[in-house]
Amino acid sequence: MKMLMGYMAGLLFGLGLAVSGMTDPARVLGFLDIAGAWDPTLMFVLGGAVVTSFIGYRLVFQRAGPIFGERFQLPTKQELDAKLLGGAALFGIGWGLSGYCPGPAIASVSGLTFPLVAMLMAMVVGWFAARALTC
C-alpha cells in the first residue's frame, strides 16, 4: 500500500506540473527573464505549493504517525555546508540554462527533445558524480 501511495503521489505531482504548464521550459525561462517578456506563472505555482505544503504539514503532524508508513521520515541535518550550497547552485544553474528541473523533466519524457535529453543525461551524470564524491 505504501508503494501504491507513492505512485499516486507522483502521478498527482506530474499531473499538477502538466496542468500548471511547468513542463514547458519556455514558461520557466520566461519567469527568469525579468528584463524581457517576464512570465509570472511560476510564482503563482510556487505560491500555491507553499500554501498547500504549509496547511498539509500542519494537518499531518497533528497525527501520531503516517497512515501508510511506520513513522514520519524527516531530515535531521539542519546546517548549511559546501555540499548543500554547491548542489543548490548547480541545480539553479541547470534549471536556468535548460528550463527544466527533475520533476518536470521526467514528466516531459513523452515529448523528448534534444534539450530535454541533454538535461536528463546531465542529471544522471550528476547523480553518479555525487555518489562518487561522497563515497
TrEMBL record:
Keywords: Membrane, Transmembrane, Transmembrane helix. The chain crosses the membrane at residues 41-61, 82-100, 106-130. It holds the Pfam family DUF6691. This is YeeE/YedE family protein. It comes from Halomonas llamarensis. The lineage of its organism: Bacteria, Pseudomonadati, Pseudomonadota, Gammaproteobacteria, Oceanospirillales.
